[in-house]
Amino acid sequence: RAGAGSARTGGTRPERLGSRLGWQPAFDSVVDNPYLADFYTDMRAWGFQLQVFFLGHRANQYMQLAGLPQSTILDRSIYEDAYIFCRALNHMGNLEERDYQSYLRVYNLVVRNLPPPDLLIHLRCPVSVLVERIRRRARSIETSISPDYLALLERFYDEWMKDFDICPVLTIRTDDLDFVNRSQHIDLVVQIIQDKLAGKEEVVF
Prior knowledge:
The protein is α/β, with parallel strands linked by helices. The protein is about 55% helix and about 10% strand. It is built from eight helices and five strands. The chain has helices at about 15-20, 35-40, 45-65, 80-90, 95-110, 125-135, 145-165, 185-195; strands at about 5-10, 25, 70-75, 120-125, 170-175. Strands 2-3-1-4-5 form a five-stranded parallel β-sheet, with helices on both faces.
C-alpha cells in the first residue's frame, strides 16, 4: 500500500492526482475550521488554538486514512505545522516560546506513533505566483496574507526539506503547472510519482 503526503508552497489540490492514481484524497480543514477566520484577523490571539486544532484534525485524519485498504493522498502533511507554520508564528512573535514548546511536545508524542508516508510531494512555487493565485482565489480570510509572510514560509520550507528524512521527497516546481487546461501536465506528474514510488530514477548529464 502506497501513501502520500503533500507539502505545498504552491496550490495544486490532490483530487486530480488522486483520481488519476486511484488514491483516496483527503483535504485540509478550511471551510469547517472554527479558528481560521479569527486567526487571519489576529494571528497572535489565535495562533496557538489554530495549530492545536490542526494537529488534532491531521492526526485523526492520518490514522483514519492509514487504516484504509487503498492508497491515499493528503492535501497537506501533518509534519509541516510544527516546522513551518508554528515556527513562523513563533518567529514573528505571534506564538510565545512557551506555547511553541508546549505544542512541540504534544506534536512529538503524536507523530511518534504514526506510520510514515511512502512519499512526500513538495509542490514548490515562487512567492509572486502564490500572491497572484491567492488574488484569483479571492477568499476573504486570505486577504491579509502578505508577500513577506509567504517568503518566510518559503524559507522555512527550504530549510525543512534539507533535514526531512521520514520518507522520500519528490519536489515539483508548479510555476507553470496547469492540470485544468494542459492534460499533459497531469500525465507527466503522475508518471513521475509512479516512478518515484517504484524506485525508478534517471540521471541525464
